[in-house]
Design a protein that fits this description.
The protein has 14 helices and 16 strands. The protein has helices at about 20-30, 55-70, 130-145, 170-180, 200-215, 235-255, 270-280, 305-315, 330, 370-380, 390, 395-410, 415-440, 445-460, and strands at about 5, 30-35, 40, 45, 85-95, 100-115, 120-125, 155-160, 190-195, 265, 285-290, 295-300, 325, 340, 360-365, 385. This is Glutamate dehydrogenase.
């Protein structure tokens, strides 16, 4: 049973998308709300505090689980475990702003599954963060860690605000207050946050310091993605993008695609997209189109990636880059390529644009970038999709390395990190490829078959208490 531990929703403040139904809102102001009932909708369980008509990203995850249930055999009796997050925390984050006023922000932390180990998952800062989104992201983390065989469960967090609208000192105060509010919920052996959208190494440093001050001792393992100086791991900054490259190269080899001269399109040019772009370019591929929140740029002969990275650092986005062709965001999806890498936010490839995509392989650098409807359209078009739960698992894999190094107080070289990462990612891809061939399913379905089987096997072995 999911528990909404603290719904600190301010009177008159409705979370985006109607996350909490009116009857719950009427009863949970500034109270702990336990024992939330679950309702069954179309064979999928929708928590009563979500809009059952529009469960958002959580609904997408439920559809993905429904699709693999026929492959789970006797373990199917435990499938409800996957459809019910173990714990949900919603907190109010009151902060004094630079002008002296008091602002309130809505924060979340969801632990989807702790069957296989402590929760693991990032914390994102975004004005459109919703509970449905965080629930889905925590569930995808459960799948992701199981796919690559890490001893973790799935968790995720977020604060509903746009950090670009606030000063650095305000963001720091928001960060510290949020961690203070969730400090009893997380722990080095219970739930380990990390960076996500609009959070970085500095954010993790503030989080680690706040938690450590409350604990009265240094706790470097409470978060991953920290600066190297305070226990971060070498190779972590590039890990997600490097993982995208590793499995993208493996998928290309399986498809008989030579990376030398291959055309790459990338949506999202932050840490993940830019790292993948550089590594594919070093392998001889041409990155011909890039899109981010500022616009889309195109060069059929290949973009100069180092120059584009410098331009983004100086101007905040790809728009305005000289000596390239500017195209519309809609045109970006129609650029003919060999590999397309969505590395931005979820839901970017949907029923409305999937039919226009012309590529051979999609490698999902972002979490949940493709809707189930789009999945079907792309599969019918013969496009191979390397799913997010494998493709972007490089980040959580090296986060695991960081956590292990913090626990042992013994640190590895970057070469060791990259070698270990390549071994884990390559083995995971081979497992999914073999499962896909065995069951004649897509790589995404193979990933869910593999992960759900592993999670539910552990659930069955552990049994229920009491």
């Amino acid at each position: 049973m999911a528990r909404l531990h603290a719904a600190c929703i301010r009177p008159g403040h409705q979370p985006a998308g109607g996350i909490l139904q009116a009857n719950l809102l009427d009863n949970c102001f500034y109270k702990n709300y336990n024992g939330v009932s679950m309702t069954q909708q179309s064979n999928s369980y929708i928590p009563s505090y979500l809009n059952a008509e529009d469960p958002g990203p959580w609904g997408i995850f439920l559809q993905q689980v429904d699709r693999v249930e026929p492959y789970l055999g006797e373990l199917g009796k435990w499938v409800g475990t996957l459809k019910h997050p173990e714990k949900i925390l919603v907190v109010d984050v009151p902060v004094r702003l630079d002008d002296g006023s008091i602002a309130h922000f809505e924060g979340y932390r969801v632990q989807h599954s702790l069957n296989c180990g402590p929760g693991k998952g990032g914390i994102r800062y975004h004005q459109d963060v919703t509970l449905s989104e965080v629930m889905a992201l925590s569930a995808w983390m459960s799948i992701k860690t199981a796919v690559v065989g890490l001893p973790y469960g799935g968790a995720k967090g977020g604060i509903r605000f746009n950090p670009r609208d606030y000063s650095k000192s305000e963001v720091e105060r928001i960060t510290r207050r949020y961690i203070n509010e969730i400090s009893d919920f997380i722990g080095v052996e219970k739930d380990i946050p990390g960076p996500d959208v609009n959070t970085n190494a500095q954010t993790m440093a503030w989080m680690m310091d706040t938690y450590s001050m409350n604990a009265g001792k240094d706790c470097p393992g409470i978060v991953t993605g920290k600066p190297i100086a305070i226990g971060g791991s070498l190779g972590r900054v590039e890990a997600t993008g490097r993982g995208v490259f590793i499995v993208g190269a493996a998928a290309a080899q399986d498809a008989g695609l030579d990376l030398c001269g291959a055309r790459i399109c990338i949506q999202g040019f932050g840490n993940v997209g830019s790292t993948a772009a550089r590594l594919f370019t070093e392998a001889g591929a041409r990155v011909i189109a890039v899109q981010d929140h500022t616009g889309s740029v195109y060069n059929p002969d290949g973009l100069q990636i180092d120059a584009l990275i410098e331009h983004v650092a100086a101007h905040g986005g790809v728009a305005g880059k000289p000596n390239v062709q500017n195209i519309s965001n809609d045109e970006f999806w129609e650029v003919q390529s060999d590999i397309l890498i969505p590395a931005a936010l979820e839901g970017q490839i949907h029923q409305g644009n999937a039919g226009r995509i012309r590529t051979r392989i999609i490698v999902e650098g972002a979490n949940g970038p493709t809707t189930p409807e789009a999945d079907d359209i792309l599969a019918n078009s013969g496009i191979i999709i390397v799913p997010d739960v494998l493709a972007n698992a490089g980040g959580v894999t090296v986060s695991y390395f960081e956590w292990v190094q913090n626990s042992a107080n013994f640190y590895w070289s970057e070469e060791e990190i990259n070698q270990r990462l390549e071994t884990i990612m390559d083995n995971a891809y081979k497992t999914l490829s073999a499962t896909a061939s065995e069951h004649r399913v897509t790589l995404r379905t193979a990933a869910f078959i593999t992960a759900c089987t592993r999670i539910l096997q552990v659930r069955e072995l552990r049994g229920l208490y009491p």
